[in-house]
Fold:
Amino acid sequence: MGKFNIEDYIAQLSIDCVIFGYKNKELKVLISKLSYGENLWSLPGGYILQTESIDEAASRILRERTGLDNIYLEQFRAFGGPDRIIGSEFRDLVRAGLRNFDSNRFDDEAIDWVTSRFVCIGYYALVDLNKVEPRIGEFEEFLKWVSIDELPNMTHDHNKIVAAAHKALRQNLDEKLIGFNLLPEEFTMREVKELYEAVYDREFPMNNFQKKILGLNVLERLGKKFTGAQNRAPYLYRFKK
Amino acid sequence: MGKFNIEDYIAQLSIDCVIFGYKNKELKVLISKLSYGENLWSLPGGYILQTESIDEAASRILRERTGLDNIYLEQFRAFGGPDRIIGSEFRDLVRAGLRNFDSNRFDDEAIDWVTSRFVCIGYYALVDLNKVEPRIGEFEEFLKWVSIDELPNMTHDHNKIVAAAHKALRQNLDEKLIGFNLLPEEFTMREVKELYEAVYDREFPMNNFQKKILGLNVLERLGKKFTGAQNRAPYLYRFKK
Structure:
């Protein structure tokens, strides 16, 4: 990779992405294991090119990390305490890591730039987890889907950012009918119900739930799902585009 | 005023404030007449000191413009297209205005800084309009309360920012019970209802509305409002702290 040109980007402003997926009845978040040291986890993120909007930057960062275009994403909040300067101990690890990396890519000026105070704009994304092929960024060892209840301590305020994204998702799930972005194209009513239960962390009685969702008139009913026991097979649904 | 030191602030990142007030049954916004040219209006805003959080910056900017501490304010969205560089014609006016101002305060470097591309973080504030003493910023002639339905075309995307703030206010008014910040300390039920009608731009039948608001158990009933006709005098209420 060539030189990291700090002039290409807006300084002190980053985008962090809370990428939500859904599997095994659990709401999951895609997080990165950083290579700067032991046990360092963070949200995937990046910087904003001078030539792109903040929404375009978020889409680009998500495409780079998931291989997916046209991801559902929503900006939910900016985070910006003066203590959002990378904490001193972590800052030293990052500076050492960048120094040992490749001075043709990160010179002293770039290292100062990367380790300065950042305000971050938070976006959350909803993806069909089965379609994602996570791709590591620089200074990351691997990416991992983790249940939202089992997240490790992450760098900076990233746990707070996930909590705020989860709150925004709960507020928007009903109103904007965005939950279907977390499911495969075809799904049963039970799967929708279980998704809602995972997001809200409470149970919904099936009869009421089905009545409410069907009443929204946004689902198209397909054939029955083949299970072997034809008489008890559930219907498959698809979200009307 | 001394030199404007660009090192004191985060570059390319501003805060714009949608200050909502309520009077004569109308939701109003405080806007600034700029001194750079004819018919130039904008939202009050400012920059973020390296030493303060973005929330602190918003509070400081609001205090500087309204004279009020402890204003209810809420961050609602960041705005950041690459075309949020000050539009070329307006940019020229700003550059000319800054050049003619005082070169001890704005040198060439500061002029470039001020007229570069900015991402803005939007905050809305709810104030008791009667308590506000609007104070102009540099390059402003005066501030003015304007009904949200009668706003002039403003610079940049400021009309869009007001629309987004209004949407966020509607979403939060019920849920967070923040509307009382727009009223004087004591108010009648009719005044609360008229406030809600102004924010949502629709009518609420009095009986249902009163029942709903009283059911929230957040209001303290005081004496009757003296009107001369004692038997028909409405009760006064106060928000429970």
User: Anything to note?
Assistant: Chain A touches chain B at residues 10-13, 48, 50-55, 75, 77-82, 117, 119, 121, 171 (CB under 8 Å). Chain A has a mean pLDDT of 92.
